[in-house]
């Protein structure tokens, strides 16, 4: 065991030495960690200096549990993005804006939310700088969220720049679909290769009640445009709420008969301002029982990835499938590989955790890439084994969903 510990410590010191010698700023022609050419980082905006950053020791970043995991797994992955339970975080969600053109009941309070001043939101270059840093450390999937990401004027440019990051395999977006049909041809050309569209009802009048705005036909147009342009699957997110839309489960499943849709039924989750109540939540098993009454032949599909959040099912001979996101009744914390950056630049290692670290402030205080990686590593290292459970998190102080970014 001592030999293993010594080997890891030596490897750590070697990596840290490379960082200190400027491995992130490779000379022209030399590749970065992902194998692509390294680009010069632009100078961040000048801001008042923060207190001196703590540079953690190897013991802080790779505590015994983390060292043990890394010793047992031959496949290399960043120690900074591996937590103390061995979870490797290769999936990053970045919120591009706190603004939205809808007012969904489960997402934000009816009166809206206090928006962050524009000067405190991440700039385009800061978004790209952080994306590049995470990709260098092993992130291979980035999802752009909001608010509504497609109302950000430079969303196409952001996707085009991210597409140049070597090692990034998937750029996805979660959208309410209002602007999707108009923008999708440009988004696809820029490099967008996965889409989730929120739609909680197939009844236009009920749509207006749930989202407090018009726009049902624009969302449907966006779904059809995504199918037309060859996205497969097109994921449709449906938050199921008792007394509101649980009577439409069968209608949503029927959509998958002739189209390559993945309808994802999401258990209603508690966030500040959305008036969550246990009685409003429809559990995965209850949804499944309802659907099986209509299609008893519904079959469970094998899990595509160990880190998948969805339990997938399919009616035989249907083109598409249905999935269940069981955050409340059967959490999937043990395989979580997700990190989140809010629109104002805070890193959240857990959707339901209220602990946040401001990467924006460190960027603007001219923190080096090594220091940023160390800060990220410390945050990931503090990630808990699982969230506190549905009743506890309903009482916890957290941001409204719109200010987290999903």
From TrEMBL:
Region (Disordered): 28-48
Keywords assigned by UniProt, alphabetized: 4Fe-4S, GTP-binding, Iron, Iron-sulfur, Lyase, Metal-binding, Molybdenum cofactor biosynthesis, Nucleotide-binding, S-adenosyl-L-methionine
Top-level taxon of the source organism: Eukaryota
Family matches, as SMART domains: Elp3 (SM00729)
InterPro entries on file: Aldolase_TIM, Elp3/MiaA/NifB-like_rSAM, MoaA, MoaA-like, MoaA_NifB_PqqE_Fe-S-bd_CS, MoaA_twitch, MoCo_biosynth_MoaA/MoaC, rSAM
Domain annotation Radical SAM core: ranges: 84-297
CDD domains the record matches: Radical_SAM (cd01335), Twitch_MoaA (cd21117)
Enzyme Commission number(s) from the entry: 4.1.99.22
Catalysed reaction equations from the record: GTP + AH2 + S-adenosyl-L-methionine = (8S)-3',8-cyclo-7,8-dihydroguanosine 5'-triphosphate + 5'-deoxyadenosine + L-methionine + A + H(+)
Gene3D superfamilies the record matches: Aldolase class I
Pathway noted in the entry: Cofactor biosynthesis; molybdopterin biosynthesis
Cofactor(s) the protein requires to work: [4Fe-4S] cluster
NCBIfam families, per the entry: moaA, PRK00164.2-1
HAMAP family: MoaA_B (MF_01225_B)
Name of the protein: GTP 3',8-cyclase
Naturally occurring in which organism (per UniProt): Pogona vitticeps
Source organism phylogeny: Eukaryota, Metazoa, Chordata, Craniata, Vertebrata
């Amino acid at each position: 065991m001592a030999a293993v510990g010594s080997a890891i410590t030596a490897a750590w010191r070697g990596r840290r030495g490379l960082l200190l010698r400027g491995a992130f700023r490779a000379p022209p022609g030399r590749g970065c960690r992902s194998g692509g050419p390294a680009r010069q980082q632009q100078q961040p905006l000048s801001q008042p200096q923060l207190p001196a950053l703590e540079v953690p020791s190897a013991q802080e970043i790779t505590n015994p549990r983390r060292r043990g995991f890394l010793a047992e797994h031959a496949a290399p992955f960043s120690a900074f993005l591996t937590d103390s339970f061995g979870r490797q975080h290769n999936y990053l969600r970045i919120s591009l804006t706190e603004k939205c053109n809808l007012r969904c009941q489960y997402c934000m309070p009816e009166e809206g939310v206090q928006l962050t001043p524009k000067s405190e939101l991440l700039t385009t270059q800061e978004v790209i700088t952080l994306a590049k840093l995470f990709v260098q450390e092993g992130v291979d999937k980035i999802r752009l969220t909001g608010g509504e990401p497609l109302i950000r004027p430079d969303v196409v440019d952001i996707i085009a720049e991210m597409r140049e990051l070597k090692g990034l395999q998937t750029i996805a977006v979660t959208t309410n679909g209002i602007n999707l049909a108009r923008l999708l041809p440009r988004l696809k050309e820029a490099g967008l290769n996965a889409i989730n569209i929120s739609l909680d009802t197939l009844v236009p009048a009920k749509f207006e009640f749930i989202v407090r705005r018009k726009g049902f036909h624009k969302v449907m147009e966006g779904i059809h445009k995504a199918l037309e342009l060859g996205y497969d699957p097109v994921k449709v997110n449906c938050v199921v709420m008792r007394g509101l839309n649980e009577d439409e489960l069968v209608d949503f499943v029927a959509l998958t008969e002739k189209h390559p849709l993945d309808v994802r039924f999401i258990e209603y989750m508690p966030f500040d301002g959305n008036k969550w109540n246990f009685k409003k939540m429809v559990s995965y098993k209850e949804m499944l029982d309802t659907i099986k009454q209509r299609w008893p032949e519904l079959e469970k599909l094998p899990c595509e990835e160990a880190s998948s959040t969805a339990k997938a099912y399919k009616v035989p001979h249907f083109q598409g499938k249905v999935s269940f996101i069981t955050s409340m009744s059967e959490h999937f914390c043990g395989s979580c590989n997700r990190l989140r950056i809010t629109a104002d630049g805070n890193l959240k290692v857990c959707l339901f955790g209220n602990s946040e670290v401001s990467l924006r402030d460190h960027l603007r205080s001219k923190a080096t890439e090594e220091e940023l990686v160390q800060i990220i590593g410390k945050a990931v290292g503090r990630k808990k084994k699982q969230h506190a459970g549905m009743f506890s998190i309903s009482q916890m102080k957290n941001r409204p969903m719109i200010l987290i970014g999903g």
